[in-house]
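Our platform keeps sequence and structure together, in a single record for each protein. This encoding replaces a full spatial description with a residue-level series of whole-number codes. We quote a single record here, exactly as it is kept in our systems:
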Amino acid sequence: MICITGIGIVSALGIGVEANSSALRSLHSGIAPVRWLDTVHKEMLAGEVPASNSELRALLNMPVNQPTNRTILLGKLALREALRHAGPLPQSARTALLNGTTVGGMDRSEQLIREILAGGASFPDAALHDCGATTDGIAEGEGSWAVVTTLSTACSSAANAIVVGAGMIRAGKADCVVAGGSECLSKFHLNGFNSLMILDSGRCRPFADDRAGLNLGEGAAYVVLESETSANARGAQILGYLSGWKNACDAFHLTATSPDGDGARLAMTGALQTAGLKPSDIDYVNAHGTGTPNNDATELEALQQVFGENLPPFASTKWLTGHTTSASGSIEAVFCLLALQQQFLPGLSERPSRPLRHILCNAFGFGGNDSALIFSSDASRTETPVPCVPQQKIIIQDAVQISLQQPFSDAWIESPKTYDTPYARAVDPDFKPWMSAGEARRLGRMLKRVLATTKKVLAENHIEHPDAIITGTGLGSIEDTEQILFQMLENGETMVSPTHFMQSTHNTLSSVIAIATRTHSYNATYSHRQLSFESAMYDACMQLQNAEVRNVLLGAHDGMTENYFRFLRSFGYVGQPRQWTAGEVAVSFLLRGADASEAKGQVEIAGHRLFHRPSLAELKQALDVMLHDGGLRLSDIGGVLTGVNGSADNDTYYNNVCPRLFPGMRLILYKHLFGENYTVSALGMYAAFRILQRSPLPAALLLFNNSEAGASLTLLKKEL
């Protein structure tokens, strides 16, 4: 069983567990006219956290001049409370922080957009725009982390952080995982939701006959997940158990839910199966319940399919907090744990008719990304199946790329394209064979690349529906994000395009694949700066090693616009005097599990590790373990593929580390061919894969990638 030993929360109901518990039990709503958000829509109702940014800073004892954003402030408060609640974790514990967010630091970016476009002075807090930077800001100074990463699956982000955390503990990859999410209100997503015409001008009324839409909210919450061994060893107080979890995909539309509720039904039945429970064991359902006509009808249909005529009490708490989007899954997870402890029904005035033992909690996101969690008060009541972890190999079956080099081609190995500009767009193929005329008109350039690389790699391997779709992206569809910011800049807050808003959400990249292939299985998107692809690969390897799936469609996709290039250059990430071209990335891998005989002659991922601010000693120890587990010696390594990019600041790191880890070995470069980008390391792995395919030497290749806040080691080998 997976124990829960700490919780922390900030919402419109108040700051801290006690304030939220009191307001929740008294059904005191935190929804009111917008106060803190600088918007022209002051008439709109929202669930804002009852504190200004300066007041939040004061609660955190954060210096006034320290760069931050509201998502960081909310997240740090909730995280700090969860860790305090859990008590001191052992220094030796392998502890991960998994954070869910979608808007990241958008509240600051939209304030600074004029200065950014003008190419003015560097703004340190503008550099906190992306999701991964926001997560790093939340993590900074709050704990000792082995792994830190970000899930960005819209309104199911925090719930999926909990799903992945549970998988890490069951797979033995972590002793303790702090999982949840943080999201502040911004003009970007207030006006984006308004463009979809799903905001209620009054108070939202989930599941009511006269419901008319949702009220947005903001907040943050985290739960401390821990193995029983770890919790018992330190005598931790166990608040409850995470007994079941499942992620599935509706595969229907980028924002609307399907009438039959396939994704919601699959998530709930999958969570029950993981927990070893029957529908009749569930005592209460904390519904996603946004208050929109479409969502509530779909969820009710799915609930009736799962529970039949014996539907337990259910309710949504969003009429109290507003829809806190990416943070909603963890905020409502805390509500479920409070309900188990205090025996009440969140969102309802009635008392439970029987003791609450098992609560089902739903979280559904754009693109049909649906997740369900089950929280239990008594571990003995459930029989979680022991995961089957066979000693199978993970092989790269195939890969397809669109980049600065020739698309769908390996011609770059013999005759690479060269660039002498600081920034270049990818070379696109003819998209017509890979999408309909309607898709070609509707989708932006980046989503076209996603579909083209995906459909090509699936078609060439005769796979119709992959078992899992996992994507890494640093920025999502940056072109669509830019367009919304430009529209607000030029036209105010009344002319935001719904199409651009739908496509700007990071997990649109994974969702558009699921919709195009009608794939209802596991679907996740990671957005953690330079470790976005590595985080996605970490999850893919875990899914395969746990025998959860047979194959994984693993992707890395990032664009680059001229404006965003200037923005990144303003704080030194690209465009330095000796740095190579900044480019774009679209690469899709097909990974699958194989036994030892099947792996012969194939390129195998023999090891993969993520780190948060590692020391050289930690990297050396991890490398030794990976070599041992992969049946290799250091002398077997034929080359070291590095992230050298021509910039002195970046390359100094490799010049210091590589000779110590790999003395006397040759370095293999790839960024001079593919450019610099948040997920360009995926093209590094693509290059390693092709080198190993084409030649018996090098016998093994090590891909090493570094970022400011983390690093990864990936070991590829090919047994002849």
About this structure: The longest strand covers residues 2-11. The radius of gyration is 24 Å. Confidence is low (pLDDT under 50) at residues 382-389, 696-708.
